[in-house]
Every structure is written in C-alpha cells, then in structure tokens.
C-alpha cells in the first residue's frame, strides 16, 4: 500500500489518464479526494472525469493541484511534453515523483526541463488498461529509488501486469506491447473480412474470431508452450491450416510483423530524438 494518503495529480486528461484512473479506483488503491486531474484547456473533459470518478478536476485548481501532489503523472502527447513542463515546472519540486506514460520521452529529457532532481519513472502501458488488462513496462531514471519503482508498480498493477525494464528497452516495449493492441485489432479486422467473404454473417464471425484469439492467448499462457509447438498441433499435414499458412507466408506475414515492431520501436526513438533536438 505505497499509495495510501499520497496525492496524485494527472497532467493530461485523455484516454490513458482515464484508463489509469479507472484501474486505480476499481482496485481501491486510492480515494478520489487524493486524485486531481488537469489538462491544457478542455473544461468539458474535466467535468466529465469529475462526474465519472469524483476526482478533483477543476481548471481553477490546476496550479494548486500540481503544487500539492506527491506524484505527478504525465499523460499528454509526446509533442506537448516540452511545452507543458516548461510552463508548469515552477509548480514542481524535487520531492515529487514524476511518472510518465509518454511514448519516446526519456527520463533525462524530463529532468533537464524540470531543472531539479525529482525522481522520474518512465512507463509504457497500453489501452487494455481500460479493462484492467494492460501489459505495462516501467523503468527508472537516475534519481529514482527502489521505493519509487514500488509506487509506480502499485499504480500500474491496478491496470494489469507489470514488468520492470532498463530504460533503453522501453522503445522496444512501446513497439511491441504499447502499440500491440492495434496490431491485434488489424488482425481481427482482416479475419472478419475473410470470414464474411467466406460466407459467414459478420456478428457470428466476430464472436468466433474473438473466442479464437482469447483461446489461443490462454493456451499460450496456461501451457507455457512455445507458440511454434502449439501452431504445429493445429496444422495437419495437407490440411486446411497448412494451406492457409502457406498463403500467409507467401504474402510475407511474418516479415511484415517483424518489420512493424522494428519500425514502431524506431518511431518511439524518433519521438524522443525530435524533441531533444528541438530543445538544443
Ligand atoms: N493511446 C495509447 O494507446 C497509449 C498512449 N500512451 C501515451 O499516453 C500519452 C497520452 O495519450 P492519450 O491519452 O491517448 O492522449 P489524448 O490526446 O487522449 O490526451 C492528451 C491530454 O494531454 C493534455 N495536454 C496537452 N497539452 C497539455 C499541457 N500543455 N498541459 C496539460 N495538459 C496537456 C490534453 O489536454 P487538452 O485536451 O485540454 O488539450 C489531453 O487531456 C501519450 O504520450 C501516448 O504516447 C502510452 C501507452 C498507450
Ligand atoms: O501510437 C502511439 O504513439 C502511442 C504509444 C503506444 C500506443 N500509442
């Protein structure tokens, strides 16, 4: 219970902030009166989050909320981090823990803008946080201690599973599990198209595909088997799976996924580099 009595303030009130809020309240690891949420301008959105969670979400209390927080969660787009921190740094202090969910942005970048030694934890959750099933990786900047990692772990365990990584692995995590839900959704979209073209009704296709993905994921988890072994068990020689997989391979399915992850990883590095360059 590292979060008990800690005051948390979100800077950024978008979909990731909402997903984390929902997880923390579902797991009852913090009370609404200890949480405030701020954004740049959208008062309607703040009101929506106040109505939904009962958190302090009043634009007029933005400065006070940031100043009084023990933990600041940065949840704005990468392009907005520099300007947001430059504008708000005078409200922060070295005793606050800074937790960032922003893709590509390094702990060094954040520390340099703040200009003081507040500990910074960089994380990468994903949108399955909304239903408590995020895969989140967390890493610490140079001034963060084991206790800070434990605090961040408690926050992100409320929205799913957590692994601790070195910061230089976080771009790859972003390419794999941060963006990963989108790859799976594209797979479902394509499978649905195929199912309908093969003659199944759309609604039934969706149900069959979802259960197939859930079943395959649970098989991987529960058996601990290598995916190649499980794949081979589905694939009868000369059967339907073999025929389907041959088409996937001839169209470069595996290379496409590997290239996708490498490009998303590279993009995460680019997002950080663009901002670092624009600062110098
Ligand atoms: N979506 C995803 O799948 C994932 C996203 N992330 C990361 O989460 C972060 C947030 O993403 P998401 O929630 O989708 O973004 P949204 O666009 O939904 O929300 C961004 C929020 O940031 C606020 N904001 C912008 N500028 C400032 C500022 N200067 N001061 C205070 N608040 C500001 C916006 O306020 P206003 O509306 O008033 O402008 C808005 O509330 C991103 O950095 C992304 O990389 C991480 C993992 C997964
Ligand atoms: O697309 C993005 O940049 C963010 C980071 C991971 C998922 N969404």
TrEMBL record:
The Gene Ontology terms for molecular function here are: pyrroline-5-carboxylate reductase activity
Keyword Chaperone on this protein? Answer: no
Q: What range(s) does the Pyrroline-5-carboxylate reductase catalytic N-terminal domain occupy?
A: 7-104
EC number, as in UniProt: 1.5.1.2
Instruction: Outline the extent of the Pyrroline-5-carboxylate reductase dimerisation domain.
Output: 167-271
Q: Quick one: which pathway?
A: Amino-acid biosynthesis; L-proline biosynthesis; L-proline from L-glutamate 5-semialdehyde: step 1/1
Q: Where in the cell is it found?
A: Cytoplasm
Assigned keywords, A-Z: Amino-acid biosynthesis, Cytoplasm, NADP, Oxidoreductase, Proline biosynthesis
The record's catalysed reaction(s) read:
L-proline + NADP(+) = (S)-1-pyrroline-5-carboxylate + NADPH + 2 H(+); L-proline + NAD(+) = (S)-1-pyrroline-5-carboxylate + NADH + 2 H(+)
Listed Pfam families = F420_oxidored, P5CR_dimer
Q: Give yes or no: UniProt keyword Ligase.
A: no
The entry assigns this protein to a family as follows: Belongs to the pyrroline-5-carboxylate reductase family.
* Entry-linked PANTHER family: PYRROLINE-5-CARBOXYLATE REDUCTASE, PYRROLINE-5-CARBOXYLATE REDUCTASE 1
For this protein, the record's HAMAP family field holds: P5C_reductase (MF_01925)
Biological role: Catalyzes the reduction of 1-pyrroline-5-carboxylate (PCA) to L-proline.
The protein's name: Pyrroline-5-carboxylate reductase
Question: Which lineage is the organism of this entry classified under, starting from the top rank?
Answer: Bacteria, Bacillati, Bacillota, Bacilli, Bacillales
